[in-house]
Amino acid sequence: MSNEPIIKVEGLSKMYLLNKSGIPKSDTLYGNIRNSLQNFKNIAKKQETSDFWALQNVTFDINQGDRVGIIGRNGAGKSTLLKILSRITPPTKGRVEISGRLASLLEVGTGFHGDLSGRENIYLNGSILGMSKHEIDRKFDEIVAFAEVEQFLDTPVKRYSSGMYVRLAFAVAAHLEPEILIVDEVLAVGDAAFQKKCIGKMKDVSNGGRTILFVSHSMASIQNLCDKCLYLKNGEMVTYGKTDDVIPVYLRASQEVQLLKLYDRTDRTGNGKLKFTSFNLKNNKNENLVSAQCGDFLNFELEVNAVSNLSNVIISLGIDDSMGQRVTHFSNEVTNQVFEKMENGNHLIDINIPKFPLKSGEYTFTLFCTVNGDIADWIQEAGTFTVESGDFYRSGKLPPEGQGSIFIEHSFILK
Amino acid sequence: MTKDKIIIDSNLSSFFSFKEVLKYKNLLGNLAKRDFLVRYKQAFAGIVWALVKPLMSILVFGYISSKISDTGNTATNFLYVASAMLLWQLFSNVFNDVSNSIIGNSNLFSKVYFPKIVIPLSTILVCLVDFFISLIILVVLFIISGQAVNWHLILAPLFILLTVVNGFGIGLCFATINVKYRDVKFIVPVILQFGLYVTPVIFSTKYYTDRLPDWLHWLFCLNPMVGAIDGFKYALFGGDAIFNVNYFIASIAMSFLFLFIGIKYFYKFERNFVDYI
């Protein structure tokens, strides 16, 4: 019995129908009647729909006690897979056998209601996640202690700070005791200390012999938590095996995509009012660089295309290290330099960094832009760049390897 | 450790399982509690509002009825209208809330699995609480008018249940349609408004059948609320509330037909709701 896999997935596929014309299928009765009348008149004009396979022929087994990370770029089918395993949406083809109680955590605080107090929400959320009243009663104090919200138990959660809200929501979920736990990147919220606490809690859970499926973009969390890894690409399974074997395959693959020119990229979201078209690294003499150098002046030059006259444009650029951990983030919002006006056409945007502080290595960046508060363009892992080591302190000396990953200007004074 | 094996495949239909619903009774109770608590949070008069709406309708329609109807006694007229109106409002609340319940809670079942039937079932509980609060009006009216009750009264819960069955069955159909076609939220109030005038709320069934042409009698009695309201009136007042047993039975049969269709239709599409929300 113990050799039987706890989750058995066979040939799992999920298809969605997309509308080719780009016009959404009508969502009103009238619209549908009108459409079908038109179709009747002219069969050739029939609304063209196309199949989109979010998941295709995925087969794998998970044994009891396995901690499996699921990785892949946006749109690779990770969430679809979790949704099918959680019985939220049915597969189009294939079959899954699950032997054991399964709980899924695709979002923190599902069903939380702002007008209800912390206490009421614990009971509501717990019951949505499938806990019995008795179970919640028994764990209540533990949940409250974990979330650190003792004094606010009878306050409506809409008056909570966002940190308290997230802590309470996660605390309830963390005290579930399923045999299989499915977690979707919910750890991306909360401060670092709390994230650490969450990972710790999940480790405790899995040390108790329970099985975990964990989706994340952060290779560091995956390495930290998972012993096995499943790599999905465009709905298909590329490889499934030991975490240390799978992550290098994934990192290599994600670099391949980034060789595409930015304006050719299709894995972007946003309304397209503004699009990133190219990216260059430049030095202070406006010369193109192959790689950045630590301690030197660096200019990230972005080329964008505005389709019309825009106002209130916010651009940001986030930098991740090779483990997928966000290192820093540049934004004209935080520097109070929001572009109030931008005429249509192409523009160059410079992001100047007087003294580049990251240690040598490979970095990935994400580009993000909003126009008037709506997301105009968003390309995750838009590209990579290399940082060469450099004489940051102008002293000819560098700190020893393993002493952190950023450089900060500092001085010592003896008094 | 008990091993319950879950099989997930592309087979689209599932069906109502009492056992599974029972497993989620805690969720059912908590969802009802949430809806109830949230409704009157930050409302000064709180639960009193549950009385205002039925009271207004009873006053208005009771007055109209006593002016027009052929049973001379004003007090009895008010009692008749009050009992029918309370039941009609129970139906109207269940119907309306059930048909909006799936859409309104899509954020839950698009993130966590549970039997979706729990959602409309929990709305019934909320409507029933409102109903029992509004029954106070009826009790007060009974005391004021000195109307006597007899053993028929024990039948009353049956017709309250029948009303819930009506609202639930028809509501489930509309809840399912609502997932894909949001037109439902405009259609339901229209149906309810129209329904009030073709249901023996203000006048008795006899009043209607006396005035309608023969061929419309049957159509009139295919309204499932005719049986529930006439039965309820019979339980409270006895007499000739159910003046034609055939019509009465036809109406009750329709109730169960709607319940059957509602459940069947709901379960046909239930598994795919998430993809259409």
Q: Given the structure, what is the number of helices of chain A? A: 8
Cα distance, first to last residue of chain B?
Answer: 37 Å
Largest sheet of chain B: none
- Number of structural units classed as domains of chain B: 1
CATH architecture of the largest domain in chain A: 3-Layer(aba) Sandwich
Query: SSE order of chain A in H/E notation?
Result: EHEEHEEHHHEHEHEEHEEEEEEEEEE
Mean pLDDT, all residues of chain A: 83
Specify the CATH class of the largest domain in chain A. Answer: Alpha Beta
The unreliable regions of chain B are none
Please give the share of residues in helix of chain B: over 70%
CATH fold label of the largest domain in chain A: Rossmann fold
The structural class of chain A is alpha/beta
Helix-residue proportion of chain A: 10-25%
Structure description:
The complex is a heterodimer of chains A (415) and B (277). With 415 residues, chain A is α/β, with parallel strands linked by helices. Chain A folds into two domains: 7-30 and 46-253, 3-Layer(aba) Sandwich (Rossmann fold); 262-388, Coagulation Factor XIII, Chain A, domain 1 (Distorted Sandwich). Helices cover 24% and strands 35% of the residues of chain A. Chain A has eight helices and 19 strands. Chain A has helices at 29-41, 78-85, 118-128, 133-147, 162-174, 192-207, 219-225, 243-257; strands spanning 7-19, 49-62, 67-71, 93-99, 102-105, 180-184, 211-215, 228-233, 236-242, 268-269, 274-282, 292-293, 298-306, 310-321, 326-331, 339-342, 345-353, 361-371, 374-388. In chain A, the strands form four sheets. In chain A, strands 10, 12, 14, 15, 16, 18 and 19 form a seven-stranded mixed beta sheet that branches. In chain A, a hairpin with a 4-residue loop joins β14 and β15. In chain A, α3 packs across α5. The model of chain A has no long low-confidence stretch (mean pLDDT 83). Chain B has 277 residues and is mainly alpha-helical. Chain B has one domain. Chain B is 73% helix and 2% strand. Chain B has 13 helices and one strand. Chain B has helices at 18-23, 25-40, 49-68, 74-104, 106-109, 118-145, 156-180, 184-197, 205-211, 214-221, 224-237, 245-269, 273-276, and one strand spanning 5-9. In chain B, α3 crosses α6 (118-145), α4 (74-104) packs antiparallel against α8 and α7 (156-180) packs parallel to α12 (245-269). The longest helix of chain B has 31 residues, at 74-104. The model of chain B has no long low-confidence stretch (mean pLDDT 88). β4 (93-99) of chain A pairs antiparallel with β1 of chain B.
